[in-house]
Design goal:
The protein is an all-alpha fold. The protein has one domain. Helix content is 82%, strand content 0%. It contains twelve helices and no strands. Helix 3 runs antiparallel to helix 4. The radius of gyration is 19 Å and the shape is globular.
Length: 281
């Protein structure tokens, strides 16, 4: 009984540190965002802003939890918490960099701040998926052993490249302009892209989890699994389209009908497939 109480107490302290750091992240983003985020969420019920912030906090929590795996050891509790806090700061900083990458590279044809302020849920879904995927990759890195922060930064950069490639491939295989649909506020299009990003993040998380053995072998593995993951997601997207939506097509439901319900079903199944694939890696 006492052991369980001690564990719960320690869990509370780690969670409290994480919440405080996420709160500072919120304050920083409030300062940097060119409009009043709180007003948009509370007064205007702006779901796009809510999705953006929810993705940032959830991605942060997932990435930070990887640090808990490595920092809970025989070291004194204060030492564990200090190391955890340092890792958590690195995770959050990288996720803030991911936001910049979202604006300038992944959604380069869209003004994200302006879009979400105008309630563009499609952009909110894409940002949510990007944050979640990045958090998953960082969880894999921080839960492993060896390499240090340069490895975390390296895999973060590689992960952003992989997510960018996925969107480019998705654009090629889709019979309409994905960026145009997102820019128009087509929530179904945003959900489809966000789901794909999340699914690839799950696969890449499994790829980078474990001990770091050196860049040569690791880069080769990451490259292979990135290509492997994108190909499998494209294949299973087609299979899910065929089996789960037999009377229609995903492209039709996204572009013409803007059917969020149908896309939620398809992306839920795709993310489920990604979970299965990740457990095989």
């Amino acid at each position: 009984m006492i052991d369980q109480i001690v564990v719960m107490g320690e869990s509370f302290l780690f969670a409290l540190v994480a919440v405080i750091l996420m709160w500072f992240t919120k304050l920083y983003r409030d300062w940097r965002t060119p409009f009043d985020d709180n007003n948009e969420v509370v007064e205007n019920s702006n779901a796009a802003v809510g999705l953006r912030r929810a993705g940032l906090f959830l991605g942060s929590a997932i990435g930070i939890s990887g640090a808990i795996v490595t920092e809970t050891s025989s070291d004194p509790l204060l030492t564990q918490i200090g190391l955890f806090a340092l890792d958590a700061v690195v995770v959050i900083v990288l996720l803030l960099v991911a936001r910049f990458i979202n604006d300038t590279i992944i959604l380069s044809k869209i003004k994200n701040d302006e879009a979400v302020k105008n309630g563009n849920i499609a952009v909110g879904f894409v940002e949510f998926g990007s944050y979640l995927a990045t958090g998953l990759i960082l969880f894999g890195v921080f839960s492993g052993e060896g390499g240090g922060y340069e490895v975390a930064v390296g895999f973060f950069a590689l992960g952003q490249v992989a997510l960018f490639l996925l969107i480019k491939v998705y654009q090629v295989i889709t019979p309409f302009d994905v960026y145009e649909e997102i820019n128009k506020g087509n929530a179904a299009a945003g959900l489809a892209v966000g789901g794909m990003l999340t699914a690839l993040g799950i696969i890449l998380q499994a790829t980078v989890t474990g001990a770091f053995t050196g860049w040569a072998e690791t880069l080769a593995d990451f490259g292979i699994y990135t290509v492997f993951g994108i190909i499998l997601l494209v294949i299973f997207r087609w299979i899910i389209d065929l089996l789960f939506l037999p009377k229609t097509k995903l492209a039709v439901e996204i572009q013409r009908n803007q059917n969020i319900a149908a896309i939620a079903v398809a992306q839920g199944a795709l993310i489920g497939v990604a979970v299965i694939i990740s457990n095989m890696i």
